[in-house]
Amino acid sequence: IDSPSMSSAIRRGLYYRVGPQIFVNTNLFNLAQAVDAGVDVDWRLRLPTAWGRATVRNVTTYFSESAKRESGADWASYNGTYGKPRWRNTFGVTLESGPWTHQFSIRSTGGFSDSDQPMPHPTGTHRVGAYEEFDVQLSRTDVGGLRGLTLTGGIQNLTDHQPPFSLQNAS
Fold it and tell me: What is the sign of the dihedral through the CA atoms of 106, 111, 116 and 119?
């Protein structure tokens, strides 16, 4: 989204005349287009156990295409570049036992070419590897006898593992 310059707005015909005055429309316009295509898969399995109800869940997103184009330009592929990894996944196990809920998750992101420019990238472009984080969470419902009140605490990135280095984040 951007504002066209006065000259580009006139070239696009974004003006009108009222008497001797000419009005040029330079309001915000979506001057680019984007296309994302892929597959989302979400499955879960619920099992009764001796400790409570267990749920195993996996959510995966795979992008087969991620492209954009600026006004008047050709389509450019950004799939597998910085901010556009080909896949993301979350795997989790939850155990519900009475008022308690315990959850463990593994969040992962696919590697990508470390550039915000469209593909293909020159040989030798830095590549950022795939990355995982482990999370834990504990919840208690009806805290202090108050129905509907849930208290939740957790730790994201339990192992305090730093993501792979990306030149795009360097200042």
Answer: negative
